[in-house]
Design brief:
alpha/beta; 7-stranded mixed beta sheet; 36% helix
C-alpha cells in the first residue's frame, strides 16, 4: 500500500475503517496518528487482524450497515473494499456515521497499464481466463466519481504511483490467487504460470519483479 497517508490523515483523527481485512491499511493509518476502530465482517480476517493489531478495537459488521453511532467519526476509509458495498446504502451509512465536517476516503491499487510488460501480462491473463482485457484508459474524474456512487458530494481525486520489488515466486502466487484463476482447471493454470515464469525471467533475470501500481484515491465530503 502507498505510504503517503499525510495526504489523507492528520494527527488525532478518530477513524473507522469500513472493511479492515488483515489490518494493512489500519497499521499505516495508525502511524499517521489516527485513533482507529476497525469494521470487519469475516471471521478469518478478524482473527488475523487481532493477531497483527491486538490493541486496535475491531467490531464485526458490514460496510453497508456500520455498527457505529451517528456523527461519531471524523474519517471513514474503505481500502480496496468499496467495490464490495452497495453504494446506495454505504454512502448513506458513511454520512450517518461521519461528523458534519467529516470525510470519506476510498482507494484501490490499480494496474499501471503504461508499463509494457504489465499491460502484456494483463492481456495474457485475460485471455487465459476467458474475459475481456480491461481498457488501458482510466476514467476521467467525473466518471470515477459516478462509478463510485459519490455523485452529489464534494470529491477530490488523486492518483499516486508506487512500486515494490518482490521475488518472482511471490508475484506468480499473487496473480494465481485471483478469483478468475481459482475457478479454472489447475493443470491449465500451472502451465500458464510456467510460461509466465519464463517470460518474466527474460525481463527480470535476477527473479526480482518490480511491480508498479497506481493508487486511485477519492476523498469525499458533504456538499
Amino acid at each position: 500500500m502507498c505510504a503517503r497517508w499525510d495526504r489523507l490523515v492528520g494527527p488525532a483523527v478518530v477513524e473507522a475503517e469500513g472493511r479492515a481485512g488483515t489490518g494493512i491499511a489500519t497499521s499505516l493509518l495508525r502511524e499517521r496518528g489516527a485513533d482507529v476502530v476497525a469494521v470487519e465482517p469475516g471471521d478469518a480476517m478478524a482473527v488475523e487482524f487481532r493477531r497483527v493489531l491486538p490493541d486496535v478495537p475491531i467490531v464485526r459488521g458490514d460496510g453497508n450497515a456500520l455498527p457505529l453511532a451517528d456523527a461519531s467519526h471524523d474519517l471513514i476509509t474503505y481500502a480496496q473494499s468499496w467495490q464490495w458495498t452497495d453504494t446506495g446504502r454505504s454512502v448513506t451509512e458513511s454520512l450517518r456515521v461521519l461528523r458534519t465536517d467529516g470525510t470519506l476516503a476510498i482507494w484501490w491499487n490499480t494496474t499501471a497499464f503504461d508499463v509494457l510488460w504489465i499491460r502484456a501480462q494483463h492481456e495474457r491473463m485475460a485471455h487465459h481466463c476467458g474475459v475481456p482485457a480491461r481498457s488501458a484508459v482510466r476514467p476521467n474524474d467525473s466518471e470515477a466519481i459516478r462509478l463510485a456512487g459519490l455523485t452529489g458530494l464534494r470529491v477530490v481525486r488523486r492518483q499516486i504511483r508506487w512500486q515494490r520489488t518482490v521475488p518472482l515466486d511471490t508475484h506468480l502466487a499473487n496473480i494465481s490467487s485471483r478469483s478468475a484463476f481459482l475457478v479454472l482447471d489447475q493443470t491449465t493454470n500451472r502451465a500458464f504460470l510456467a510460461e509466465e515464469r519464463g517470460r518474466l525471467r527474460e525481463t527480470f533475470p535476477d527473479e526480482m519483479v518490480a511491480e508498479i501500481y497506481v493508487v486511485d484515491v477519492l476523498v469525499a465530503a458533504r456538499p
